[in-house]
């Protein structure tokens, strides 16, 4: 079966990636893709590489990476226009940024050509906000099964009826789409074990860390971090700090942004790391940090959710809290009780490597997709 996986990247990450690799934008499409994969940012090639292990043909496309996409176009003799303008956007409706962009036509012209060239059995779109439903409806004749995946704030302007199947790691989203009359299935996130090969031991320890995004969709998270940073020495790596008030206690703890391998190294270097879900998750646990933190062997202290026990055993494999006060108590207790902390962290890692890898998730995805052909 042929899979084509669509995704987009944060502009901040793209700037960082190309700054790390001098003149990467002048290299071939495959060489740029290799650098993107080796960064281990986001889901990297975790879907496609594990689908290939299962015997499928699978490719990734990072649709908003202009350098990479135009390299593909040039290599396939596809002419694209170069009309530039300055654009203000909200990244997935959350993070504001201004950039020089070409007209939107290059984005869809190249993407359409790629889909027509690959002719996938399954087109899996990881960014249902940025890649328009109207475009996908037009390109659908070249695809056997159109699948969307989303666990971020839902756009108000998109019509999702073009999708044959929608996946989400949030049970409330699955219910929402089903109530709309659409086919939807629960599909959780995971950890990629090969990440461990890129990490080093013996680094300086970080007592308490937080890595994540801070936006209007993370109000409860921001309130938690303000409380913690006023009372503890929390090391914060995050996007969106620049939009916090000048007097924010989070700013005092801010260490910058962390992408890919660097983020995983920070998590592994931490004695404990804090997790708090986005507001739209409501009472459900689902995010990547659950698996990233446990996967690298760090004690995860996460907000209590009704379905967390389906993935981890609270108190045995992860630690939970229901309030900022309880979170503070948990942090202080486990910093002072190393043996207990390490035992829970070890058990959490064992659970993740046993049940929550991307290889296992792709096996589950394979079974789900077969039902919809």
The mean pLDDT is 94
> What is the terminal separation in angstroms?
11 Å
Shape: globular
Strand content: 15-25%
Question: What are the key terms here?
Answer:
373 residues; alpha/beta; 6-stranded parallel sheet; 14 helices
Explain how this protein is built.
This protein is of the alpha/beta class. The chain contains 14 helices and 14 strands. Helix 3 crosses helix 14, helix 4 packs across helix 5 and helix 8 crosses helix 12.
Topology:
Elements: E1 2-7, H1 11-20, H2 29-38, H3 46-53, E2 57-62, H4 66-75, E3 84-91, E4 95-102, H5 105-118, E5 122-125, H6 133-139, E6 145-149, E7 165-168, H7 171-179, E8 184-186, E9 206-213, H8 219-229, E10 235-239, H9 249-253, E11 254-256, H10 260-269, E12 270-275, H11 288-295, E13 299-303, E14 319-321, H12 324-336, H13 338-355, H14 358-370
Parallel strand pairs: 1-2, 1-5, 5-6, 6-7, 7-8, 9-10, 9-12, 10-11, 12-13, 13-14
Antiparallel strand pairs: 3-4
Helix pairs in contact: 3-14, 4-5, 8-12, 11-13
What's a concise summary of this model?
This protein has 373 residues and is of the alpha/beta class.
């Amino acid at each position: 079966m042929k899979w084509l996986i669509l995704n987009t990247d944060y502009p901040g990450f793209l700037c960082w990636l190309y700054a790390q690799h001098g003149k990467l934008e002048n290299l071939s499409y495959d060489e740029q893709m290799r650098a993107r994969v080796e960064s281990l940012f986001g889901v990297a090639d975790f879907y496609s590489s594990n689908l290939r292990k299962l015997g499928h043909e699978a490719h990734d496309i990072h649709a908003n990476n202009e350098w990479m996409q135009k390299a593909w176009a040039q290599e396939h003799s596809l002419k694209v226009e170069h009309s530039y303008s300055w654009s203000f956007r909200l990244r997935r409706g959350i993070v504001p940024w201004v950039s020089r962009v070409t007209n939107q036509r290059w984005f869809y012209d190249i993407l359409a050509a790629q889909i027509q060239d690959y002719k996938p059995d399954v087109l899996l779109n990881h960014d249902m906000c940025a890649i328009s439903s109207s475009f996908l409806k037009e390109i659908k004749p070249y695809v056997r099964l159109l699948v969307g995946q989303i666990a971020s704030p839902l756009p108000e302007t998109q019509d999702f009826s073009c999708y044959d199947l929608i996946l989400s790691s949030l049970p409330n989203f699955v219910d929402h789409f089903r109530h709309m009359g659409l086919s939807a299935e629960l599909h959780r996130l995971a950890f990629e074990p090969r990440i461990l090969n890129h990490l080093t031991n013996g680094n300086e320890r970080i007592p308490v860390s937080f890595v994540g995004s801070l936006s209007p969709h993370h109000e409860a998270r921001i309130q938690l971090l303000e409380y913690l940073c006023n009372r503890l020495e929390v090391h914060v790596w995050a996007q969106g700090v620049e939009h916090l008030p000048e007097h924010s206690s989070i700013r005092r703890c801010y260490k910058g942004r962390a992408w890919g391998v660097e983020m995983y190294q920070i998590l592994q270097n931490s004695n404990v790391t804090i997790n708090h879900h986005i507001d739209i998750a409501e009472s459900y646990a689902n995010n990547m940090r659950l698996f990233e933190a446990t996967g690298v062997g760090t004690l995860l202290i996460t907000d209590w959710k009704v379905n967390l026990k389906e993935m981890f055993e609270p108190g045995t494999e992860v630690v939970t809290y229901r309030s900022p006060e309880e979170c503070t108590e948990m942090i202080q207790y486990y910093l002072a009780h190393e043996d207990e902390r390490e035992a829970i962290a070890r058990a959490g890692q064992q659970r993740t490597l046993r049940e929550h890898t991307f290889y296992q998730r792709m096996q589950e995805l394979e079974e789900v997709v077969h039902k919809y052909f």
